[in-house]
Amino acid sequence: MLDLKILGFLAEGPLHGYELRRRIMELDGPSSRLSEGTLYPALARLEKAGLIIRTTEPGARGRPRKRIDITAAGRERLHELLRHPSETDMSSMLNFLHILAFLSQLPNAAEREAVLRRRLEILRAPAPAFFYDDEAPHRAATETDPYRLGMIRIAAASRRAEITWLEETLAVAQTTAGHAPDTSH
Questions:
Q1: How many Cα atoms sit within 13 Å of 75 on the Cβ side?
Q2: How far, in Å, are 37, 82, 157, 164 from residue 111 at the CA level?
Q3: Which of 28, 78, 106, 119 has the fewest CB atoms in 10 Å of its CB?
Q4: Are 30 and 11 contacting, i.e. CB atoms less than 8 angstroms apart?
């Protein structure tokens, strides 16, 4: 996910390391932590692989700053990460949200829609009963802890809202492309 975030933000335009770090932390939310000891080795690895390039430019008070740009190979790697996310990334709400944050960087609308369809299939598929799943038989009905019941209800509402959003987004995309919307469930 860190590679996706780095390449995704750089696809929007060149950044300095501190700005890239700030944007990643904002994306990850208020409790996120991204140390320089994590970010800068990742940048070095991506640079060595030819996916980004760092150039020096004058900074404040004469101190040089490193500007980071994505390369054509980096842009293609980003597209591959977006086209073919792992099953784990597609199944995880948090990881899928990171994919969603950069999905507009994928230039082909059909490929973007395929990612959304894949997520929708995962959400629609019968899943094993998890603790937080209110569709599991008797889970919400038998839970007595009010906070666990709250967790179950919040997770279920979020899942339903995501399914609705995906269905609406895909219907608009199909209508725009001149196709009839898929209403199968």
A1: 12
A2: 34, 9, 28, 20
A3: 28
A4: no
3-state secondary structure 123-157: HHCCCCCCCCCCCCCCHHHHCCCHHHHHHHHHHHH
Domain end point (choices 57, 76, 95)? 76
Whether 50 maps to a domain, the answer reads yes
**Angle at alpha carbon of residue 102, lines to 177 and 17, rounded to 5°:** 155
| 130 pLDDT more than 90 | no
The tally of domains found in the chain comes to 2
**Interval 52-99: pLDDT, tens:** 999 998 877 778 888 999 999 999 999 999 999 999 999 999 899 999
DSSP helix/strand/coil, 67? strand
| Helix spans in the chain (H) | 2-11, 17-28, 36-48, 72-83, 87-91, 93-102, 109-124, 139-142, 146-176
What are the residues facing 16 on neighbouring strands?
67
Domain range for 60: 2-76
pTM: 0.82
Half-sphere exposure of 152 (CA within 13 A, CB side): 20
Q: What is the dihedral of CA 158, 159, 164, 169, to 10 degrees?
A: 90
